[in-house]
Every structure is written in structure tokens, then in C-alpha cells.
Amino acid sequence: MSSSSLSRSASSHPLAPYGWDTGWEAEFAVYAGQGLLPGRVVRVDRGQCDVVTAGGTVRADTAFVTPHDPLRVVCTGDWVAVEPAGDPRYVRTYLPRRSAFVRSTSSKRSEGQVLAANVDHAIVAVSLAAELDLARIERFLALAWESGAQPLVVLTKADLVADPVTLSHLVEDVESAAPGVQVCAVSSLGGDGLDVLGAVVAGGTSVLLGQSGAGKSTLANALVGEDVMRVHAIRDVDGKGRHTTTTRNLLVLPGGGVFIDTPGLRGVGLWDAESGVGQVFAEIEELARECRFHDCAHGAEPGCAVLAALDDGRLAQRRLDSYRKLQRENQWIVAKTDARARAELRRDWKRKGAEGRAAMEFKRGRR
Hints:
Elements: H1 3-11, H2 22-32, E1 37-45, E2 48-53, E3 56-61, E4 79-82, E5 91-94, E6 100-104, E7 112-117, E8 121-127, H3 134-147, E9 150-156, H4 164-176, E10 182-185, H5 194-201, E11 205-209, H6 216-224, E12 249-252, E13 258-261, H7 274-280, H8 282-288, H9 305-311, H10 317-337, H11 339-366
Parallel strand pairs: 8-9, 8-11, 9-10, 11-13
Antiparallel strand pairs: 1-2, 1-4, 2-3, 4-5, 6-7, 12-13
């Protein structure tokens, strides 16, 4: 089939509203020859998933694609090959992912958890009903950049900030913690800012992330145009919400695009997100290239461009502290899962320990 014919076939396919394109059609060709059906996972629940196909949504078992590696289990957003019939009907495989949003679980086994697959935009929802936590936003953004998706920060419940100047300053504060990321304030109830957000999400698949009480379900309902997600009021005592959404659900938006809503995330652990951390703190990475030593730790080394920027006010102490914290956390999680990285981290600890002891001996000798 020619490329033009393939393009026409993909654009007229019943799954086109769910993101089906020529790339997915080409990837699926071998499975089509086996008589399997293409579909996109719209929900996963205890070894089974809901898959939307050309003929409608079917319930399928994932027993054939449930490996020991938790990063390879079927998740919402996956494109899969489903049996045309059977009771139960099985998912036989899923197509290679273009992107995946992965976080570290709270498990002591240091496992990663895939929250959404094949995502173009990662929307981080932050409620203006509570004090901004810039460090948490940076953490979300590191995972978003690492996933391969384009991040976007949405400040929800903007109607609670009556003063436009105050709202503008809040947006600026978040922009300072999110270089290269669009930040917009929206009111799901009043409709303010929804046109800007709708234009973004119309161009592909978006995943909505954030803490409980961030207004994600209300935002999802506003974008879809109907009450598809249940909404609970937040607690007045601390401004926190309950887990209204308990599963990850994929929805088609009336204005175009696909939307994945997720449960509120209390814990957002990094998972091998070195490049993501680097993109969140792009200005620090840029400064580090000017340091005298290529392995500068930005502690007390001479000729450190990062510390120089800190001293003259070009870099905020909060940003550097957050950068260091996320770097340490990422090194730790990688070391727990990668033997080579673990050995390198151990050598680094020994080297720093030796340098510290040498410095103490030098000070004692001078005395």
C-alpha cells in the first residue's frame, strides 16, 4: 500500500478519533495478517482492560501480556492487538510505546509504575486553593519531560484568586520553576482559560496529573462537556481532596484529541529521570558547563559558575536546593536497580569521604 493510500486509510479509520494514524497502522500490519484487531486501552482493572476497537469497546484479559517486569504491563493509552472473538477474549500484545509516563512506586522493591502510554502532552494540574509547592511541580515536570511528552502546567480554581495582579504573580512564580513549559490559569466553573487548554489538548493524547483535590475531575468534565467523572468537595480543614478518580480513564474530547484522567497522586517518586531533571533545571545545567571542573559538585569548588550565579542573584537558592534533591533521589533509585550505577555511586561516596577526611587532616595540620 502506498503512503498516500495508508494515510487515507488511517484518517478514515473508526479509531482515528482515538489517535490512530499511519504510524500505528504500519506497526500493526503484521498482527492484521494474523487476524487480530487493533484497539486502544481506555481502562485497566485487575488483569483485565477495556479496549476500544473499530466494532466498539470490548473487555479483554491481559494474561498473555503480564510479565514480571511492571514496566511492561498493559496500561491506559496502549495500542494493542486483540483477538477477534473468544470468551474470554485476550490481548495478545501491545505496540511499541512512543512515550510512557513512569513513576517510582512506594514499594521497597524499587519498582517503576507506568501511569499512561503514548502521551503527547503531560498536564500537571495545580490547585490555587492551596499554597503553591514549586518543588512538587518541578518533580512532576521532571517525570513529564522524561516520558517524552510535552509538559503543561494548569493552575486550576483560578476563580478563587480575585485579584488579577496576584494571579499574574502566581503564574510568574510557576513559570520561574518551569522553563520551556507553558503555564495557564483556568477556572473549570467559570470557563476562564479553557479555550487555551482545549487548543493544546486537541493536538494528540494528553494525560492529566496532580494531587487529590487539584480539580482534575472537574477539569476533565469541563473539557469533555459533560459530567463523565465524579467530583467530591475538598476538605475545608486542609484543602485536600479524596480520590474521586480511582482508575486511569481515556476519553475522546469533542473538540478533538484524547484525554487520560488519573487518580490523585500522593507520592511522585522519580524513576530514572536524569534527562528530565536536567530539562526542568535547564539554567543550572547551562551554568554547570561553565564550571572550571567538568565534575563540579557545585559545593565549594573554585571556579564554580553555579555558585557564582547564586552569589550574584542570577540563581535562587531554592532552585539549587531542589535541583540537588532531585539529582540525589534519581541517583539513588537508579543505583538500587542498576548494578553499574550502584558501583559508581559507591565509588563517588568513597571519593567524597576521602576528600572530606583529607580536608580535616589538612586543617588539623595547619593548627
